[in-house]
Amino acid sequence: MTSEERRPRRLKWLREVQQAYAGSPHGNRETHGLDSDFARRTYVPTGLEAALKAAILARRYRLVVLCGNAGDGKTALLQQLAVLLGCDHARSLGGPLTLHPAGGPRIEMNLDGSSAWDDRSSDAALDDFLAPFADGQAPREDLARLLAINDGRLLEWAAQRQTPLAAILQALLEGRPTSASHIALIHLNRQVLVGRFEPDGALDTGFLDKLVDQLYGGDEAGQIWSKCHGCIGQERCEAFRAARLFGPAALPGVVAEPERRQLARRRLYAALQAVHLRNSLHITIRELRGALAYVLFGTASCDAYCQGKSHPPYWRRAFDATTAHRQGRLLQALGLFDPALEAHARLDRALLWEIRRGFAANLADARRRAYFEWTDAELTQAGGPGARLEVARGRHLDRLRRLPCLSEAERRELLARLCRGLARVVPLPAIARARPGVVPLGLQPRVQTETAFWVEARLDDFHLTADLPAVALPDADDGQRPGLHRQAFLGYRGEQGAEVRLAINADLFHLLLELEQGYRLSAATVDETFAHLALFTEQLIRAQAGEVYAWHPLRDETLYRLTLQSGDSGQRPHQRLIIAPVSPADAGQPPGPGSTPDRPGGVSSA
Q: How far apart are CA 190 and CA 473, in angstroms?
C-alpha cells in the first residue's frame, strides 16, 4: 500500500472550522449567524438565551431589542432562541420570523434590522415592525417582538422619529432609565466572553472551554477526528499538534495529561484576557471564534498538512505578527503580548537546548512554545525559584484580573504600590518618597534647575475600583454574573470634595508597578504614550493648593516647605513666601496659622 493510499481522505470538519476565520483562504461562510449545520453544532449558549426565553414566555417583555457591534452574535442569538421556542429552523433568509409557542404570546423576530425586506427600505421595514409600540405602550394583542440591530443604525432611526417609542429607545441607548418596563434593550457588547466572576470571586472561563470543545466537534469529536488516528502525517500536521494539547480528552491520539492540557488552555485564555484588559478592543464572538480557529487549526488544508509542507506551529500562529493569512484586530493585539518579546536569562539558556533538540526553530519560538507547554515546576527547574514565563508585560496582570476579589488589605496594598509608581513618573529624591502617608507629585520647572519641587497628596484620599461591566439582562432570573472588567480606576477626592480619576488599563497598570519597583521612564515618554496620565497628575497637583516642597543636593538631608502668607501693610496688600525646613518623617502637616517657622526665609511681593 502506498503512502497516498494510507493517507485518510480529507477531513471535512477541518475545512469547515477554518471557514470560521474571516481571513481563511478557503472562504469565510461560517462567520455570520446559524445558517449552516456547522454553525448550529458549534454554537455555545451564554445563559442569556434561556433568560430571554423565560422572560418572553412570562410576558415580562413585549419588545426586546438586541443591539451591539457587528459580530456580537445578535442574529445567532435570536436564531438559537427561536430553536429553544420550538422552531426547527431559523435561517436568516430575510423577513420576519413568526413563532407560536405553547402557552406564550405570538412571537415575531427580525433577525437583521439593518436590512431591507422585499421592495421596502430598512427604514420602512423598521417602521412596520415597531409600529405596535410607537405610542410607548404595550400592545393590547398578545404579541412579543424581538429585533437584532446595530447600535448606530437604531440610534439613526430613533433620531429621525418623533414618537414616544423613539424617545424611549434613545434614552435606553444613552443609559437613562425609563418607565417602559415592557421594553428591554440588551447591549450584547456588554457581554464578556473571556471570563465571568463566580459568586466566590473565582474567574470562570467555562464559555471559552465550551467554545474550544465545540470547535473540535464537542461530543462527536472522537468520531470526527478518528480519521486522523492512523494517518502517517500526524507528526508533521500542525493542526494535529495543537489538537493533542488543546483538544478534548476524547480526541483520538491525545497524549498530554489533563493537567498539561488545562495549563495550555489557561495560558491561551490568559493571553485573550490580557487583550481584553488592555481596553483597546471589544472582543466579539465572531472575532473570538475566528482567532481560535486560526490559532488551533491554521489555514492549510488537510492534504497540505499530510504532505509535510512547512506551516507555522500553533504557538507561532498565536503570537507571531508575520504568519501567513493573519488578519483581524484580535490576532494583531495578541502579537503585542508575544512572550518572545521579553528575555529571561536563565530560562533562555535552558531554551537553547530546546532549539538544539529540534523542538523549536529559534529562541523566539522556544519562548512561545514553553509559555504554553512548560509547567510551573519545569519553569522553576530551568530558571530557578520563582521563575515564570508570562505574556509580554504580563508580570502583574494577575493582580489586575483579581482586583474585584481582593480583600480590603490587599486592595490598599495594591493602591499604595500604584501610588508609589505614580510618584516616580517624575524623578524625585529619595527623601521625597520616604515621607509616610503621602504621594509626592513632581513639578516640572520652566527652566532647568538642580532643585526638585513637588506637592504632596494624602494617600488616604485615593481609592481603587474595578470597572465591572453591567450585565446584559439585569433582572434575569438566573442572576447573570458580571464579566471580567476592562480597566481599573484610581480615584482621588481631596479636601475640596471634587473627585478626579485615572483609567488604568493593562499597559498603564504594568507601567506603574514597574516604576514602583525602580524602573525609570522619562516624563516625555509618559506624556506621549499616556496623555491621560499626565492630565491626571496635573489635576492632582492643582488640587494641592498653597503648599510646595523643595530639595537641593547641596543640603541633601534637608527638606523645605514653601507656603504663601497673605497680609495687608497699610493700604497695600502683600504676600510672603515662607521657606521653612521640615522633618522628613513629618507627614506633610502645614504650619498652623500665625506660627513662626524655625529657620524661615522670606520673599515679599506686592
A: 10
Q: Is the pTM of this model over 0.70?
A: yes
Could you give the count of Cα atoms lying within 13 Å of 108 in the half-sphere of its Cβ? 15
Check the CA dihedral 286-288-291-292 and report its sign. Answer: negative
Cα–Cα distance for residue pair 480/52, rounded to 1 Å: 12
Residue type, 269: Y
Does residue 221 have a pLDDT over 90? no
In three-state secondary structure terms, 577 is strand
Taking a C-beta distance cutoff of 8 angstroms, is the pair 218, 41 a contact?
yes
Show Cβ contacts of residue 140 under 8 Å, excluding neighbours closer than 6 positions.
none
What element of type H or E holds 387? none
In angstroms, the CA 529 to CA 425 distance is 12
Lowest mean pLDDT among 131-135, 217-221, 328-332: 217-221
Report domain extents, the chain: 47-190, 406-544, 553-605
Nearest-5° Cα angle at 295, 291 to 300: 110
Strand, coil or helix: 165: helix
The β-bridge partners of 270 are none
Q: What helix, strand, coil percent values describe the chain, rounded to 5?
A: 40, 15, 40
Inter-residue contact 486 to 279 (CB < 8 Å): yes
Beta strands in 45-167 (DSSP E): 63-68, 97-99, 106-110, 143-150
**Does the structure show a pLDDT above 70 at 95?**
no
Backbone phi, then psi, for 196, in 5-degree steps? -130, 150
Check if the beta carbon of residue 472 is closer than 8 Å to that of residue 187.
Answer: yes
Check: CB of residue 282 under 8 Å from CB of residue 330: no
d(CA 426, CA 441): 7
pLDDT at 276: 97
CA angle in degrees (0–180, nearest 5) for 200-207-43? 150
pLDDT tens digits, 201-211: 889 999 999 99
47-190 CATH fold: Rossmann fold (3.40.50)
pLDDT at 490: 97
Q: Considering only CA atoms, which of 182, 107, 105, 101 is closest in space to residue 147?
A: 107
| DSSP symbols for 497-543 | --EEEEEE-HHHHHHHHHHHTT----HHHHHHH-HHHHHHHHHHHHH
Residue 461: exposed, middle, or buried by beta-carbon count in 10 A (0-12, 13-18, 19+)? middle
Determine the pLDDT at residue 236: 82
d(CA 237, CA 310): 9
pLDDT reading at 91 higher than 90:
no
The band of 475, judged by pLDDT with boundaries at 50, 70 and 90, is low
Listed ranges 200-204, 221-225, 249-253, 364-368; the one with the highest mean pLDDT: 364-368
Mean pLDDT of 38-48: 90
